[in-house]
UniProtKB/TrEMBL annotation:
Protein name, per record: YgjP-like metallopeptidase domain-containing protein
InterPro entries reported for this sequence: UTP_pyrophosphatase-like, YgjP-like_metallopeptidase
Species whose genome carries this gene: Limihaloglobus sulfuriphilus
Domain YgjP-like metallopeptidase: 109-188
Matches recorded under CDD domains: M48_yhfN_like
Domain of life: Bacteria
Amino acid sequence: MNIFQYFILLVFLLKIYYELMKLKTEHLPGIPVPVFFRRNRRARRIVVTTEHNCVKVSVPLWNSYSQARDFVVSIATKINSNIKELTAKGVDTQRDVNMRLARMPVEAKKLADRFVYLAKKYGFKYKKLTIRNQRTMWGSCSSSGNISINIALAELPGDLRDYVILHELVHTKHPNHSKRFWKELDKYTLISSKITDRKLRDYRITQWW
Ligand SMILES: [Zn+2]
């Protein structure tokens, strides 16, 4: 092998090593759900995100996994109370489901009205609005300008509901998540839309039917 081939081999091995190091799952003392650690080149500090069934940890390159682990264990009490809160939000009794179904026509109408109001206010053109109850998406916009919004938006705080509607409306102009898309969206929102987008991840989509 010549020096060039050695170099390629070295890069290749480093890449495999890096991939292996990227994700780790652990069960830590005092935390009832699995903890996923992920290397993140862009992270400036150790970032912990709690979900109802797992904890996700972004680890910057300059922190070791054991530092990240110690950090997670040190905030176990906070994580546990977050999990409790998220689980409480997520429990639906049959009564909840029935009540939602009864309210559905009214809530769907309210959502549609809000959508039409915001579209008109900011001069957006769209083809058709459909209100659905998708499992994973708050909203979507097709390339031909058909917009779907989730009935579950009815249960979000008003600023988040408006954020999702405006997000989909801006997609009629920018069918991607480019810099220009976020810049345009920021024109219509009071606080940075990227921050609101992150806030939205704390909310679960409820199934209405
Ligand atoms: Zn989008």
